[in-house]
Amino acid sequence: MREAAARVKEAAHRIGFDAVGIARADRSEDADRFREWIARRFHGEMAWMEREPEKREDPRAYMPGARSVVCVAQSYFVEATSPPPADRGEISNYARGEDYHVVLKDRLRGLSREIEGMGQQAGSARANARACVDTSAVLEKSWAERAGVGWRGKNTLLIREGIGSFVFLGEVVTDLDLEPDAPAPDQCGPCELCISTCPTGAIVAPYVLDSRRCISYLTIEHRGAIPAELRPAIGNRVFGCDDCQSVCPWNRHARPTREMRYLPREGASSPLLAELLALTEEQFRARFRDTAVWRARREGLARNAAIALGNAGDRAGVPALLRALAEDPSPVVRGHTAWALGRLGGTEARTALAGRLGSEPDAWARSEIESSLGTLSE
Fold this sequence. Notes:
The protein is α+β, with helices and mostly antiparallel strands. It folds into two domains: 1-263, no CATH class; 272-378, Leucine-rich Repeat Variant (Alpha Horseshoe). It is built from 17 helices and ten strands. It has helices spanning 2-15, 31-39, 53-57, 59-62, 100-121, 140-146, 193-197, 215-221, 231-234, 243-246, 273-278, 281-288, 297-312, 318-327, 331-344, 347-357, 363-377, and strands spanning 19-24, 68-75, 90-91, 129-132, 151-152, 158-159, 167-174, 203-205, 208-209, 237-239. A four-stranded antiparallel sheet has the order 1-2-7-4, with helices on both faces. The chain has a two-stranded parallel ribbon with strand order 3-10. Helix 14 (318-327) runs antiparallel to helix 15 (331-344), helix 14 (318-327) runs parallel beside helix 16 and helix 15 packs parallel to helix 17 (363-377). It is elongated and about 75 Å long. The protein starts with a helix and ends with a helix. 47% of the residues are buried.
């Protein structure tokens, strides 16, 4: 067990992972907490998290015969840059390079192949191994914590000393019997900077996140209208939010990524808001197809850009908003564009909103126009 575990860890580091640990495959100690979190509807519209809970809670249901969970972490941290100007949006660090699902899955499959071969080398049948990224039915932070890869921060993200929390997690579930590691101890202490910094108060208690208020959830996973009371707090964020990580003391000396494919592409960190708002479906696909931003879809990204323009307080964004109000095929985008015009104000915005009111076919978008006109009349 011990020798095989050492070989697995050596292989993981050789393949390019920054941290690796092993846990025994049995029912997660977080199973009841996860069920309570779902019961409180803190997962929002992420209905897929409700499906197959037994697989999330116990890897033996995910892969019959499983005996070990090999957990890995890979840094995606890149040194912080200056805040973008008012006409540009902000994309979360993890989504500025190549889609991590592709990169991580590729490396995890390589680790799986090595683990599968270890059974034969030991003179037994070929071991079974299944690679998992965050699209798999596995409670990855729970297993990483149990495997000693890191501890759960009060913002619910995994933290590892010397690396920080800007990490991607992955797992290989296997029927190979490997010596498990000791769980990582919690090192957050009394610090609650992540809780007090969250712009929308989404961390409702230490280690408890209400996704429905989280900017990352709202700008990526949430479909349709974003609650009006939360829009101002989104600021210029068009995809994700890093605030609770940026203030974490454990990230002051975060280890920069060694994976070149995670480095920001040109224009990926702070894209022009007017360009995002004007993207067609074809342009969106061409620009973001192989990045994590794809998850937001064209409609979601344009919606977020409209909110950011409204929050910017710069009337230079009015022409782009006027075009979207008149031409965008999505009522969701038109409605948020109306809200943004109401925030920026001015005669041009009032005239356009009043002119659109009579021709807007969608009831919800009309209500947003009416609300904005009411705000401008005050």
